[in-house]
Specification:
- The chain has 426 residues and is α+β, with helices and mostly antiparallel strands.
- The chain has four domains: 93 residues, 3-Layer(aba) Sandwich (Rossmann fold), CATH 3.40.50; 56 residues, ATP-grasp fold, A domain (Dna Ligase, domain 1, 2-Layer Sandwich); 122 residues, ATP-grasp fold, B domain (D-amino Acid Aminotransferase, Chain A, domain 1), CATH 3.30.470; 98 residues, Glycinamide Ribonucleotide Synthetase, Chain A, domain 4 (Alpha-Beta Complex), CATH 3.90.600.10.
- Helix content is 31%, strand content 27%.
- It is built from 13 helices and 23 strands.
- Strands 12, 15, 18, 19, 22 and 23 form a six-stranded antiparallel β-sheet that branches.
- Helix 1 packs parallel to helix 10 and helix 7 packs antiparallel against helix 8.
- The longest helix is centred in the middle third of the chain and has 21 residues.
- Bound molecules: adenosine monophosphate (AMP) and glycine.
- The site of adenosine monophosphate has 14 residues, from strand 8, strand 9 and strand 17.
Length: 426
């Protein structure tokens, strides 16, 4: 069969890497792709927002299945468009992707169906939002309602920061329409975890728990990024908690979406805050996480293609996913300056000498070719991902590869996986 992956970051590299290994796949395409993806898939020069050209390509080449990586095309209705054209696609409809596309929709859904989440208030009027920011005990969180490329969440440590956050969204339009409405939310403390489940709208097929590292600096310091590293399984989610996440979050959400006539088919991503016995949803996303997909897909033993294909057809097989033993860690290497401004087109001199192995794979995010040289083209550049029998072994494997390709143009955290190490050690 022929598969098209939509997107061009680290998550899509991991998807193309995994999909192209399937014995039932003869050809993989990726729009837009990147320099690393071009080793596993034919990269197409079609924008992820150009649904018409994507569908035309799929028809012309008789592609059997399209798999969507990023949230933007899902929230803009790529699935509805493809389905109208009679094409099979993996990813939720526009109405279902609202779970990520609107914080207000997702918070209201959680409240209505008793899914645990923080206290919140919704504002469409700026003066009322400022008044709330002025009377709420800091810290608290101001969130733009719509998609804001991972930047629409501001943690406010004073009333003044709260007012500035509200003004930046509602007055100065920092996130355009996405910030026309805001949520002011209770600040939650604890340890974050990411939990994913495939779903056909009725049943769920859970993945192993994982953990992202959002802030740019070691020790979770500095501004938030798209994610500087991830690992799986995350020991903060033990078997008991895993079952609670399934029973209290994943199944009720899939049922709630069905009751709301927004049946959710695809992969459901819950960002969770865990403290002692307390479990709360920070957010839902309608896609694989980036960088969580990199270690999860490397550790997945089962063929992913029958799962994606069956969900696209609306009838998922619920046989549990098989996993390789041990742990998998992904260390993200980013352009110096990220998440602020950074240079592009910087040569990655040592990359061509690195050969992926069974244990260690370098997934590309913001890379492209300049002639036959790898150069940077984005903030997050590489996801160095390593399997190991123990968490120590996978951390060591990842950092050994990081050392072998690192140069002064790339930055990375040196403590990815440390929380798991501390938890297992104690
Ligand atoms: P979100 O896009 O809603 O997941 O927010 C991005 C990041 O902001 C999360 O991964 C958390 O690190 C942080 N965050 C979001 N909401 C809260 C909250 N209510 N309390 C504490 N941190 C939060
Ligand atoms: N890992 C963060 C995200 O994918 O949104």
């Amino acid at each position: 069969m022929k598969v098209l992956v939509v997107g061009g970051g680290g998550r899509e590299h991991a998807l193309c890497w995994k999909i192209s290994q399937s014995p039932i796949v003869e050809r993989t395409y990726c729009a837009l792709g990147n320099a690393g993806i071009s080793r596993h898939a034919e990269c197409l020069d079609i924008d992820v927002g150009d649904f018409d050209s994507l569908a035309q390509f799929v028809k012309k080449e008789s592609v059997d299945l399209t798999v969507v990586g990023p949230e933007q095309p899902l929230c803009e209705g790529i699935t509805d468009f493809f389905e109208k054209e009679g094409l099979l696609i993996f990813g939720p409809s526009k109405a279902a992707a609202e779970l990520e596309g609107s914080k207000i929709f997702s918070k209201d859904l959680m409240k209505k169906y008793g899914i645990p989440t923080g206290e919140y208030f919704v504002f469409t009027d700026m003066e009322q939002a400022i008044a709330k920011a002025g009377e709420t005990e800091p810290p608290f969180v101001v969130k733009a309602d719509g998609l804001a490329a991972g930047k629409g969440v501001i943690i406010c440590h004073s009333h003044k920061e709260g007012e500035d956050a509200v003004r930046s969204m509602m007055e100065r339009g920092a996130f355009g329409e996405a910030g026309a409405k805001v949520v002011i939310e209770e600040f939650l403390t604890g340890e974050e975890a990411s939990f994913f489940a495939f779903t056909d709208g009725e049943n769920i097929l859970p993945l192993e728990p994982s953990q992202d590292h959002k802030p740019i600096f070691d020790g979770d310091k500095g501004p938030n990024t798209g994610g500087m590293g991830a690992y799986t399984p995350a020991p903060v989610v033990d078997d008991r908690l895993r079952q609670r996440i399934i029973d209290e979050v994943m199944i009720p959400t899939v049922r709630a979406m069905k009751s709301e006539r927004r049946t959710y088919r695809g992969i459901l991503y819950a960002g969770l805050m865990i403290k002692d016995n307390d479990l709360k949803v920070l957010e839902f996303n309608c896609r694989f996480g980036d960088p969580e997909a990199q270690p999860l897909l490397m550790k997945m033993e089962s063929d992913i293609v029958p799962i994606l294909y069956s969900i696209a057809r609306g009838e998922m097989n619920t046989d549990p996913i098989e996993w390789k033993d041990g742990f998998c860690v992904c260390v993200v290497m980013a352009s110096r300056g990220y998440p602020g401004s950074y240079d592009k087109g910087v040569e990655l001199k040592k990359l061509k000498d690195f050969k992926d192995t069974r244990e260690t794979v370098i997934f590309h995010a913001g890379t492209t070719f300049s002639g036959d040289k790898f150069v940077t083209s984005g903030g997050r550049v590489l996801g160095v991902t390593s399997l190991g029998n123990t968490i120590e072994e996978s951390i060591q494997g990842a950092y050994k590869a990081v050392d072998s390709i690192s140069d002064q143009n790339l930055i990375y955290r040196t403590d990815i996986g440390k929380k798991a190490l501390l938890r297992i050690g104690c």
